[in-house]
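Same chain as my last thread, 143 residues:
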Amino acid sequence: VSEITVTKMIGASGGSLSIDDAGFSITFAPGAVQSNTLITVTADSGRAISYEFGPHGTQFQAPVTIQQDMSMTTLADHPEAAPRIRGGYAANGVADILNGLLARVAEILDATTTIVTGPDGQQHRGTTSFVVKHFSGYLLISI
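reply #2:
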């Protein structure tokens, strides 16, 4: 799997951006950015669920929510682990991912993970979401 990069202009009224092939979306509340800002998101090609965001260092004035569809990850069939999933801020982006799945995390962010019942009648992780206040690299982590 190779990197996937998408860009979109987000203005003061808010908006969203997604990478369907990665099960990723990001939503900008109204007022998150003060003027039109070209947002870039790159899904990492490695095994970690990680993304790079730009412009690097952008600060937000209102909530920006990252959401990951867990059915597109190897973690989908482990609903018992949902309470341990968090967002992780990686100051150096994918450079902070070591050995494919370990990461140097500068900040741990609270996350919410939904549990859904699949067509097989079993419970699975649905989506995980967390709020960010600035741009750099973020990933899902298990604590």
